[in-house]
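Regression test case RT-17, inverse folding.

Input:
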């Protein structure tokens, strides 16, 4: 993602969200959480183009399956700066 364009980053974000919300498969929802777990080197770029990621991570952390919740825990903490909730609107 470091070399991806803004459009490619947004497309990847939408794909992860679609994968999560349109599937009942545990593995699909887990993969969606992994897709939005960026490496520290691309964290800033992801923030620039995907303002909806904190909301997506927030929803993922409330999944009915513990494994899926854990996958979204890291992106949530990295996007909002810690375990406490933060405002999701801009």
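Golden output:
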């Amino acid at each position: 993602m470091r070399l991806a364009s803004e459009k490619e980053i947004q497309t990847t974000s939408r794909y992860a969200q679609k994968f999560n919300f349109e599937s009942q498969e545990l593995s699909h929802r887990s993969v969606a959480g992994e897709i939005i777990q960026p490496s520290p080197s691309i964290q800033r770029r992801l923030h620039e183009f995907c303002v909806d990621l904190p909301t997506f991570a927030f929803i993922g952390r409330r999944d009915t399956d513990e494994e899926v919740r854990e996958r979204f825990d890291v992106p949530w903490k990295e996007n909002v700066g810690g375990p406490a909730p933060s405002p999701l609107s801009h």
